[in-house]
Amino acid sequence: MLNRSYRGQDCSIARALEIVGERWTLLIVRDVFLGLQRFDQLQASLGIARNVLTGRLRRLVDEGILERRRYSRHPARYEYRLTEKGNELILALAALQQWGDKHVSEKPPRVLRRKRDKKRVVAALVARDGEVLLHDELELAPTV
Amino acid sequence: MLNRSYRGQDCSIARALEIVGERWTLLIVRDVFLGLQRFDQLQASLGIARNVLTGRLRRLVDEGILERRRYSRHPARYEYRLTEKGNELILALAALQQWGDKHVSEKPPRVLRRKRDKKRVVAALVARDGEVLLHDELELAPTV
DNA sequence: CAACTCAGTTTCGTCACGAAACCGACTCCG
DNA sequence: CGGAGTCGGTTTCGTGACGAAACTGAGTTG
Question: Which residues of A70-91 are buried (b: 16+ CB within 10 A; e: fewer)?
């Protein structure tokens, strides 16, 4: 996906995709969440071209999704961490993962768990009373 | 994003993004969910090049996310509907929207509501006991 | 019968991407 | 003390996806 904007779209989905909708970007966030934090680790894991990785990391840092921190001077070496803003993308990743598990993967290779007791965790749409909803009970309404 | 695959990635997120991670694709799904179902409506709403829209719609139909149905013969005219598989992407869209609402939009232009009582609905990560979780309580574990 | 609608297709130039080589600072090994 | 290796990139170059706009063809409307 290009970094071009979706001009004329007054929509949070479009705004979000302008930032994280480029090719590779969400996979980089996934890998950093999984613990890969250095340039060469990411490059090896993703098989992404190095110049493209450079660009994506720079963009993610500019947008406040990743934080670039030096873990060694002499020589200067850097690693990337998720910021709070970056961590909040986990929900979207989980939703995509669940959809992929159900519709395109044979066997889900990874599952999301609660650390405390290792019980499975799912992404869902919930009302304030805790009810989990299906799509036909939903509507997307403009705010007035 | 290109329609090229993320080769060598055994990951449902990557699998999902191979299908819906191309530029425009998720915005098309959003618009169809909002009720825009004809070629020219989508083209006008998105400002997408017509040849690109043609390709995206074809791909979405091939993948079973949209269904192309004739609503008029003489002249033959078609509209696009979400399949069940397509409807299940709403959760991922909602997650992206929420992230965009919080981090990049000034005022959320649209909200997700329960049809029945118009109460707000949110995407969240929930354990089986109904507890809503934050990212630091989560881990992504390989299935054995 | 001319203008308009709808759902595309064709053409063409540009720009983002992928591959691979290169670079500079530093460390490790013999 | 010299050569290989590591890390985090940058540079170069060819290809292919995209954007813009014109065109098409079947049918409808005034």
Answer: eeeeeeeeebbebeebbbbbbb
